[in-house]
Write a structure and sequence with these properties.
555 residues, mainly alpha
Length: 555
């Protein structure tokens, strides 16, 4: 019983080690991995090479598949080239299995010691994150060594010997078990290494081990499908295509397995190396056989899982891809795109103020007020999505972007509330009471409204690209808008003194309206503050120095 518990603990350690390496690499190179994948689709060979390299770093073709699924869902990569990247990713994880099949037990203590020291001493830096990766690699090699040690007593137990003798040589059962173990452990690499180690210890016959490897490959495809089950149709294309490749490969090999088991023994006498070599050859064969079909299959997948019509879907989040959460840098980009979607709805509300004001359109007013519910829903969705991103996994730049997105969405939500209140006031105090603004008053409001829309577009540009020059323009607009609001409030009071009837009837509404427009403009301009502060372009105070207190104010 103790030996069996040791084996389970070693397997758990192996799975945990692959997870540590995968998350560590994503934290170090998340944004760079995105650029590599996005630029690798010029041709099929470069796409395969990029997939091989990225999966080799992540030690997980499933993680690579989820990243690609997010890219395809956002329209950044076509489906066909992304499938080519996935073929290379499967080869990359197979190569890592070959590397770990060698005796690296001597390296494990060194990796763990160096990794722990660097991670603890500088956890939030790139060096610290590389230390995390070193810890994961050390844990993997240690786990493989522990699996060998735990299986040696088991192979000598009479019960185990009798069980292996009675084990049916049924390829479909072996594939099912291998796929199930891969899904449960969330790592086909870990299952392949475990199978190879058990075969080397004599616990598994070679034919059974090869069947389990086929199942592990199939399981990695199923795992990606399950992970994207709740995503958009676009995000499910790559997992489905990759699974179809694996199913086709298994169907081709199943009738040939008895001959393969005989001929593969000519490569080496080591069962461990035979198992990992079979895993590598299987994925290389898939890449060679199917790389020429990726474009045709990509077109088919685009037809099977079409992009839904976004008309009438503005109320729902469009860019918050749950599969991107495993890649923090990608998830931050998804949240930023959704924040711009929220801003588009707010801009629509702002544009609608003037038609309601001029045309007394109650139907439009009601529609605009309903759109505030959409703004609130998008704000809640973005906020919840961002809270699911691990802050510890973000670089300093990404952490700042996380904060900027939260601030931007809060401002948009507050602007939506102000616009809703403005529309309600126009209904209650102008439209239903059949009142009108004076020509001069209407011209002033139209001028402020036009500047506000211009600043809205400028604020979205500043949020998107972080331009310091545009941020300075936006902040200058805050001062200009404030001066205009004061000027127009004063001219309104002049009209009151002249006993202009329209101005008298709409005085409170007029002053409230220009004040609300100024508040909206202030919220838009506040987007510039973090960018200018980071660039050192903000002064500490607006009070002129030196400043002396007036004598009559001294205490």
């Amino acid at each position: 019983m103790q030996h069996l518990l040791n084996l389970f603990a070693a397997i758990a350690l192996l799975v945990w080690g692959t997870y540590i390496v995968r998350t560590g690499v994503l934290r170090v190179m998340g944004a760079n991995l995105r650029h590599v994948l996005a630029r690798s689709v010029r041709n099929r060979l470069s796409a395969v090479a990029a997939g091989l390299g990225v999966a080799g770093l992540l030690q997980s073709s499933t993680a690579t598949c989820l990243i690609l699924a997010s890219f395809v869902a956002q329209g950044l990569i076509p489906t066909g080239p992304a499938l080519a990247v996935m073929l290379g990713a499967d080869v990359g994880t197979s190569l890592m299995a070959v590397v770990f099949s060698f005796d690296l037990s001597w390296l494990s203590p060194l990796l763990i010691v160096v990794g722990v020291v660097t991670f603890i001493s500088s956890e939030s830096t790139t060096i610290g994150r590389l230390g995390r990766v070193a810890i994961g690699l050390g844990v993997i090699t240690l786990a493989l060594h522990l699996i060998v040690a735990a299986t040696q007593p088991l192979t000598q137990a009479p019960v185990v010997v009798a069980l292996l003798a009675a084990l049916p040589n049924e390829i479909m059962l072996e594939i099912f078990v291998g796929a199930l173990l891969s899904v449960l452990s969330y790592s086909s690499l870990a299952i392949v290494l475990l199978t190879a180690t058990l075969a080397a210890a004599g616990v598994l016959p070679l034919v059974v081990a090869l069947g389990l490897v086929l199942g592990a490959n199939l399981g990695s495809g199923l795992l990606a499908m399950l992970s994207t089950a709740g995503s958009t149709p676009q995000a499910r294309r790559i997992p489905l295509g990759n699974l179809l490749f694996k199913i086709a490969g298994c169907l081709i090999l199943i009738p040939l397995m008895p001959q393969i088991a005989v001929h593969i023994t000519r490569l080496t006498d080591s069962p461990l190396h035979l198992v990992v070599a079979f895993h590598l050859l299987f994925n290389v064969a898939l890449a060679v056989l199917f790389v020429g079909t990726v474009r045709a299959l990509g077109v088919r997948l685009d037809g099977w899982l079409p992009t839904p019509d976004k008309a009438g879907q503005t109320q729902r989040p469009q860019h918050l891809d749950p599969t991107a959460l495993t890649t923090p840098s990608l998830a931050i980009s998804c949240a930023a795109r959704e924040a711009l979607h929220q801003a588009d709805v707010v801009e629509t509300m702002l544009r609608g103020i003037l038609p309601v004001l001029k045309d007394n359109d109650l139907a439009l007013a009601e529609n605009l007020r309903r759109q505030d519910d959409t703004v609130d829903q998008l704000y809640s969705a973005i906020k919840f999505y961002l809270t699911q991103i691990s802050r510890a996994a973000l670089s300093e730049r990404e952490g700042k972007r996380w904060t900027d997105i939260i601030s931007f969405t809060i401002n948009m939500e507050q602007i939506g509330d102000i616009v809703e209140r403005v529309i309600q006031d126009l209904e209650d105090k102008k439209i239903r009471k059949n009142r009108n603004f004076s020509d001069a008053g209407m011209a002033e409001i139209c001028h402020l409204h036009a500047r506000l829309l211009s600043n809205m577009r400028l604020s979205m540009s500043v949020f998107l690209d972080g331009s310091i020059e545009d941020a300075q323009k936006l902040l200058a607009e805050k001062v200009l808008f404030r001066d205009l609001e004061r000027e127009y409030a004063a001219t309104h009071l002049v009209r009151l003194q002249s006993n202009t009837p329209e101005s008298i009837n709409t005085s409170a509404l007029h002053l409230d309206l220009i004040s609300d427009l100024k508040r909206i403009n202030s919220l838009l301009c506040s987007i510039a503050y973090p960018i200018l502060d980071a660039a050192g372009a903000l002064s500490q105070t607006r009070v002129k120095a030196p400043w002396r207190q007036a004598p009559h104010l001294k205490t």
